[in-house]
Amino acid sequence: MKGFMIITAALMLTSANAAMALGSRLPEESKQVTQPQEKQEGSDTIQNIPGGFFLKPSQMSVNLSKYDHLDPKRLVPTKPLEQAVKFYDLNKSKIKNQRYLTIVDFTKRASTARMFLIDMSTGAVRTFWVSAGKNSDPDNDGWATSFSNQSGSNKSSLGFYLTGGLYNGGNGRSMYLHGLEASNSNAYKRAIVMHGAGYVSPGWAGRSLGCPAIENKYVSDLLPKLTGGSLLYHYYNQN
User: Fold this and answer.
1) What is the full DSSP assignment across 153-220?
2) What are phi and psi of 39, to 5 degrees?
3) DSSP assignment of 209-238, as one string?
4) Taking 60 as the threshold, does the pLDDT of residue 25 lie above it?
5) What is the widest separation between alpha-carbon atoms in the chain?
6) Residue pLDDT, tens place only, 123-148
7) Is 175 a residue whose pLDDT tops 60?
8) Which CATH class is domain 12-18+41-235?
9) Strands 12-15 and 53-56
10) Cα 23 to chain center, whole Å?
11) Domain boundaries, the chain
């Protein structure tokens, strides 16, 4: 991220509409063929979603030079990285798990590793295959082109999230997600969570019912790192 300039940007407020409703919910996620559709158990017990508003950069000076150490191998596309780091910096006091920042770049095809895990301390980046919702990629050609915040849409939702707690459900170990923008405010109610899936493998990420599903082999490594209020960004040519 060398060469970041001081960016002039406007303070816009976007509500952190992450409702912590109790009780079971129907998960909007794809199961392997052998798994029945099950209700998600319980509710998020980690109280890590700050009240009030999150700042969205648009007309405020943000000095990003302190993040020049990030992504030394230039793996992350510049635009989503800059947007995510600006949001991270402006809202850092509300981000409890500040060690990791995760970006899913839905402008990339399912045949590429389009999820980027950034270690904010060391700057190192790891890449992973991740699914999109099946109706975000209706042609099943690997390109996600349509997104929604609506229950039953079976689409991915764009914008910034905070991670919640971990639980064991129909897809094994999973992690709650809380949307921070109007574009993803229903994520928790829709049971949009991060989990492992057999349909995600190196070279191709299959489609979920809206969840960002990763390879099963990374669940035990990644989810404990990301849980507890780290920032996740679902990007698709947002301004």
Assistant:
1) ------EEEEEEEEEEETTEEEEEEEE-STTTTTTTTTT-EEEEETTEETTEE-EESS--EEEGGGHH
2) -80, 140
3) SS--EEEGGGHHHHHHHHTTT-EEEEESS-
4) no
5) 52
6) 999 999 999 999 999 999 999 999 99
7) yes
8) mainly beta
9) antiparallel
10) 23
11) 12-18+41-235
